Structures are given as structure tokens and as C-alpha cells.
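pinning this so it doesn't scroll away 📌
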Amino acid sequence: MSNPRYRSLSPDNSLARRDFFKAGGAVGAGLVLGGRTLSAFAGQSAPAQKTPPPRPKTNIEEATKVPRTKYSLPGLFPGQVVQVVNEEAMPGGRPDASVIKGMVGEGIVKLTNKDLKASFGLFFTKTDVVGIKVNPVGPGLISTRLEVVDAIIDWLTENGLPKKNVIIWDRFDYMLTDAGFIAERYPGIGIVGLQTMDDDAQSGKSQDNSKWLKPDGKHVSVPNFDQEVYYWADVEGPKDLAYLNQHVFNGKHSYFGKLLTKTLTKIINIPVFKNTGNAISMATKNIGYGAVCNTNRLHGPLFLDVCVEVPAFPVIRDKMVLNITDSLRAQYDGGPAENAKFTYLDNSLYFATDPFALDMYCHAALVNKRKSMNVQVNENPRFTEYLRYAEKLGLGIANPDKIKFTSVKLGPSS
């Protein structure tokens, strides 16, 4: 079952370029890297403050000093976003595996302008260890579709990557299980959750912490995180047991999972199309809050900036070669947790090597959808300024003038 305590478009809805400029281009050009703050939550509005609190210091400069590789963000195709639409993808609300496989193949080909074999060679070698980062929140409703992951695995293995070199992963092991990412469903494929969380202890149903807390007072998942590779922010994590259960560590360090630092050589990121207030919870948030521990302390003072600064570290920046936003069933309000009344069949997949261009376009698409559903929209620049921040750091393209968007419609009426 899903855990509500954890927080972290059909062709007719495709965004016209003028709408994209209105929704995504409203962020403005001004940006000061040193003294910016974001609202603690991406809600409708933030309380007025005469003097904004100072932005906590982080170790982002350590990341930016490391030399880049040819795979480094924004990847091989900066500023390019491809949408593939097929109205037959979700007949009766159920995924059609063969249709979705065709959509995945078409999206990769359109993005790279090469066939699937040549596209594989652009991103991978046959000795790579490829981690597929899914989003299992809202299992069966808005979680990453198993069929999308199936299609990606087929692409990899049909071009010579051994199954044992493919790992489906997320931060929480129980969420992967709830969403159907289990060994029986994926024989020969690795399934890795970076950490355990005891749901019963978290909810108060049980006073027994022994499933997650060792006698020495440390979380059982401590060995899964690399204490030599971390995102540091001058913000303390709470010391209560509920926080440690969910976040493994407190203090000021968010450690990267050893899976990323020691095992994976490439990453494919498969988020889902959903909101978090007036902002989005898609490509950059899926990886930014999914790759490290001790994150809840960051929501108030840094929130969306984490979606820039965590991916800026080489362990993600140089490995995450492809992003595919699953918008087969999308959610326009009530996020980032699932809320069925705000979901709709979009029958779309979005492809990019550049997660910031991808999120900028999808943010604009979300705004367009919310307006069409008469949901109140706050277009304050703070909801996209983190994407501009990424552009300043050279991690992606956020300027709508520089984003190349291509939409492809498949199906019998195409």
C-alpha cells in the first residue's frame, strides 16, 4: 500500500508555443546565486516577509569544480524535449504494453535522430551498469508504469546489455514492492531500495523499532549510504526517532546511496507527471530527493534548489544520460502524493537528456492543464526559478526561446 505519511496531455492538450512562453517564460531573467530563497512549500502563495531569511550555505561549489565528461548534464541533446502521444496507450485506463513499447522506441529515435541500436551506442556500452530510477509513489495510479520500464529494459538487453547489469531503484524498498517492482516480475534484473523504513513504527501502529533501529542506535540502512560522497547544507536534521526511521541520518549531511557511488555507471530517470502545489514533482525532483538521505530538513529552506544542487554532483551529473517523464496517466493537483480525483489519461511520454529543459516544458504543460480545469494557478517566478538556477550552473536549458520541442502522434489516426 502507499504511504501517505511520506512527503518528499492528450494531443488536444499539447502546449502551443505561445502558451509555453506564457507559462514557462514568466520566470524572469534576474537571478542571484548567492542569496536566493524559495518558499518552504510550493503552495498557492507564501507569507510576505520584509526580510527573507538567508539562504543556507551548501557545498555546491565542490560539485561545480569537478571537470565534466561528454555525458554530463545537460547531456548529448541539451534543450531538446520530445513528446510521444498515442491515444491507445491506456485503453480503459490500463496500459497496453505493445503500444507503450512503440512509444518508447519512437521517443528515443526522435530524440537522437538514430535508430534504436545506434541510440543505445550513443549512451551506453555493453559493460555499463544501468540504474533505472522509478517513482513508485501512488502505486498503480500515478507510479512509473511497469510497461515503460519493460520497454526500456528490452531496449537495453536487445542491444547487448546483460540483464544482470540493469537495476531498478528508488530510495525506499517498500515503495518499490508496493508499485510492483519485484524480483518475480523482473527476473534477472536487480531491484534496489536505498533504504528501509518501518511503516508501522512511522505511523504509530507499533512501538517496536527493532526492524529499522539497531541496538547501537543506528539505522539498519546506514551501510547503504556513502559517507564520503554527500550534499551538505547548513541545516540540522531533527533527532527524533520518526525522523531517523524515514531519513537514516540527521545532522547536516545528505549522503548519496552507495548504489550510485559504487555500482551504477549510467542512470535512466523515469519520473511521473504530477504537481507539488504550483510547482512540479517530475524529473529533477525524482532524482534530487531520491538519490540522497536526510532530506526533509531541506524542504523549508532549500526545497526546489535541492533539485538542482543534488543532480549537480558528478555521481548524477555525469551518469544520468536519459530522462523519460511518464505522463500516461498524469496528475494536475493534489500532489506530490497520489490523488485519484485529479488524475487524467494523458497518453504521453516525454523524452530528454536535459532534465531541466524537460521540467520547464512540463511545468508549462501543467500550468496549462490546471487552468483548463479551473484550478487556481500562482505563476510567481519562484516556482521555476530553480530551473533558471540550473541554467546558470550549466546543467540545462531553461530559457523557452532555446528549448526545441517536438511532438509526435502515433496510432491509427496519425
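📌 and the second one:
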Amino acid sequence: MAKRLVSEGGQVIGVDNLATGRKDRLAELAPNPHFSYLDLDVTDAGIVNHPALQDVREIYHLASAASPRFYQADPFGTIAVNTTGTHNMLKLALKTGAKLLFSSTSEAYGDPLVHPQREDYRGNVNTWGPRACYDEAKRLGEVYCYEYWRRHALRVKVARIFNTYSAGLRTDDGRVISNFVTQALEERNITVYGDGSQTRSFCYVTDTVSGLRLMMEKDEANGEIINIGNDREYTILQTAELVKRLTGSSSAITFHPLPADDPVRRRPSIEKAARLLGWKPSVSLEEGLRRTIEAYRNGTPPE
């Protein structure tokens, strides 16, 4: 996102506490005079009055661990960044007159009983389980956004993002694509949880960024929740086999117990994104995996 905004001529301020991020990922952006970085935590109340942020016009609130490995390791931090952190960003937007986009998640639907998932589906989420710190915090973050839109007419938009991937994911991220690609390239067993019949819809990062940019730009997205994801659905086993084929790996595919509350099916309805934004993804899973594998293999910077 930062690279896209800078390339468009924007003046970009990146804010991160590096809880899961890595500063070396800023190496390409750091020399650019249109980019600056602040080592801050959005849950800190002082961020609302930070002098460097008083002229912002657009706020992309993307802060939060998104991998179960990381958000389950710090459940209270995950809750705080999506609730208190979201409230602080809304306060900042109200103070500066900025537009705000909140990155919610497909996890707001939980283990869905409706397929594909439309934005008006209220979800099937367990509040008493290991994923709840992320799922429910994102859902409450959406409520904060709704109240600021309703009470203050704030230009706020909520993106429910479905399984974005690219070489930008840490190799130890713990999510499906980073796991499979890293394991295949290192000729280790490719670990599939459950029998691999559960499904996901994977969206390459450039498509996700394009969707978020359109949401920020278009007034039609104000006060709306919009799914941003690829509506092609793959089983986890199909994904593992595709990674194995594209890497030319001799790794074995092994099966392990399914984690608690792991969703069985996941596919977005993107009719609303098409209607309000004129958006749809253009990068196929095979093409996105080829780009990801090449970058992981060669150590080239992520897109």
C-alpha cells in the first residue's frame, strides 16, 4: 500500500510498533522523500495529537496481527489494536477531517453457515475460543466505525479482507501460502491441517491494494462494509498440490489435526465491490503463486 501511494505522488506516513512487522521491509521506501516512518502504537492515546499527523487526509487503519500464530500469542494486544486503536484513529480522522478505511476481515463471518459470504451476513463466530480475540475485536472495530459514521458523518469505510498473500508475508508468518511455499522450497513436509477439504479464497496483494484504494477514493463506499477478496475458491489440499507443482518440490504432503474453530468454507461475494467500486481481482492463484515463489526463491523484495 505504501509503495502504491508513493508511486502515485502521495506523501505517506507509515506508523507501526513493529509488533509483527520488520523494519528491513522499509528499506526500499526509506530513501524516498515522500515517505516517513513513525515508531508508534495506535493504542497510545497520544497518537491523536501527534504533531506529524495533524495534516493527514487519508487514514488506512491496517494495524493488527492477522496470522493466528501472532494474534493468539498476544490476544490482549490484538483486542486493543482493533478496538482502542480503531477508536484513536477515528478520533484522529474526526479531528483532521480525514477519510478513514478500517481493515476488517473475513474472520468477521466466523465459520460461516451461508455461502458465499455477503456483507449482510451476520456470521457464526465463537466468542469463547482461540480465534475470538481477533474475530470479535475486528467486529467491535466495525461497530466503532459505524458509530462515527452515524453520529459524526465521518467518511469511514470498512473492508472485509479475504486471505491476501504475496512474498511480503514473513516466511514464519504461519498462514497457508507462506507455510506451503517455504516448506516446498526447503523440501520439508507440506503441512495440511484436517483432511484438506476446507476451502479458502486467496487474493494477491496488488488486487487487494487496488480494492482498498478504490474504497478510499469513492464516496459510494462511505458508511459501507465491502468484501475485498478473490471469489475463486480452492481447497487447502488443492492449494498444497499447486504449490508443490509450481516449485517442483519433492516434499510430501502430511495431514495434522485441525485447529479449533478453523472455518470449513470461505468465499466472498464480491458483487458489492463490483457495483460500488467497479473492482474485481485480476491475478489468478497460479500467477500469484508464481510471483510469490520466485520472490521467496530469489530473495527479491516483495511487491
